Amino acid sequence: MAETRNTGAGEKIKVAVIGASGYSGGELIRLLLDHPMVELTFLSAERNAGSIVGAVHPWLRNHPGVTGLKFRPLAELSDVGPVDVAFACLPTGALPGVLPQVTEQAKRVFNLAGDYRLRDEAELREHYPRSAENPAKFDYFVPELAASVPEGRLINLPGCMAVTTIYALYPLFAAPLVRPQVVVDAKTGSTGAGRTAGEHHAERAGNFRVHKLHGHRHTPEIRQAVAEVTGSAPELHFSTFSLDVPRGIMVTAYATLLPGVSTLDVKRAFGKAYVGKRFVRVRTTPRHPQDFPMLKAVVGSNVAEIAVSVRGERVVAVAALDNLIKGAAGQAVQVMNLAYGFDEALGLPLTASAP
């Protein structure tokens, strides 16, 4: 089994992307190609093994770094020797069956899929049965809510809708400022369903519809994460909806303030929670609709925007981010930067792409 180690000062780290033909994998390739401290060593994709990267991800084909770069089956990871980092971008349920192959060659594994996120055995069996059948100890990590990256080799990153919701709820429960009962609706673009989703474009275009009103697997993840960083678990009702956009997530959280909590208390809590956090921006005094978080302010960037509004005892928190960058690939690169002592923002976009 490969041993963990830190690279020397100025030394590039060797990186593999496992499951690199999907949307998150493609976004990781795009970010890593321009990362000055990364040597992109191995890209796996079973169905696309042998294909050049530019043929599978045509939006990457004009980057000089993809010339001659091909996808390979995971079995060939051993041929390239040890890598410092393996990013796992496999479909949910796939990593547990191949984790020994990955850990044999990778010193650290950053997992972008849902496997191993939950700690409760019953919830794990309900939502991620393959993980329950193939147990492994992963540390769950939200970069803005912890002092440092866990020292373990296996790190699980939060889901895109989950982390957007966590950003919205964390300041409210850290104080605490609200009653436990919270209602959240999360709206997501089509890339959130993955590249192999069976939904036809004609059914999604010009439409806005329910995705899942009850029992979404991000619900226990959000409860678990908020409880671990605040000591208080929300009684969460979490519903999801499908947007007619390729990328982006908008979360709206509704809660009731505890007696005596003022509007100023709420604003101070949000400011304190994310002070100095480069990738979570609090919209402190939104007065007009365009002042609140919106997709065109974040899509294309590794930035999450948050705002909060209070009227009487009611509080509404809004958060938005790009599901493929801050909710997946960008967040993963951010964590890699922190783990290896690079500048946290190295290789990551801070501005959105619009209109």
Give a quick set of tags describing it.
single chain, 355 residues, alpha/beta, 7-stranded mixed β-sheet, 6-stranded parallel β-sheet, 12 helices, 13 strands, 30% helix, globular, disordered N terminus, N-acetyl-gamma-glutamyl-phosphate reductase, oxidoreductase, NADP, AGPR_type-1, Semialdehyde_DH_NAD-bd
Describe the model.
By secondary structure, the chain is α/β, with parallel strands linked by helices. Helix content is 30%, strand content 22%. The chain is built from 12 helices and 13 strands. It has a 7-stranded mixed β-sheet with strand order 8-9-7-10-13-12-11. Helix 1 packs across helix 12, helix 7 (160-174) packs parallel to helix 9 and helix 7 (160-174) crosses helix 10. The longest helix has 15 residues, at 160-174. It is globular, with a radius of gyration of 20 Å. It starts with 12 loop residues before the first strand and ends in a 16-residue tail after the last helix. The model is unreliable at 1-5 (pLDDT under 50).
Report a brief summary of the structure.
By secondary structure, the protein is α/β, with parallel strands linked by helices. It has twelve helices and 13 strands.
Distance between the termini: 48 Å
- Number of E-state strands: 13
Strand order of the largest sheet: 8-9-7-10-13-12-11
Report the major sheet. 7 strands, mixed
Radius of gyration: 20 Å
- Indicate the mean pLDDT: 93
* Unreliably modeled segments: 1-5
Content-based structural category: alpha/beta
Percent range for β-strand residues? 15-25%
Shape: globular
Helix content: 25-40%
- Please report the number of helical segments: 12
Helix/strand order: EHEHHEHEHHEEHEHEHEEHEHEEH
Protein name: N-acetyl-gamma-glutamyl-phosphate reductase
GO molecular function: N-acetyl-gamma-glutamyl-phosphate reductase activity; NAD binding; NADP+ binding
Catalytic activity: N-acetyl-L-glutamate 5-semialdehyde + phosphate + NADP(+) = N-acetyl-L-glutamyl 5-phosphate + NADPH + H(+)
Family: Belongs to the NAGSA dehydrogenase family. Type 1 subfamily.
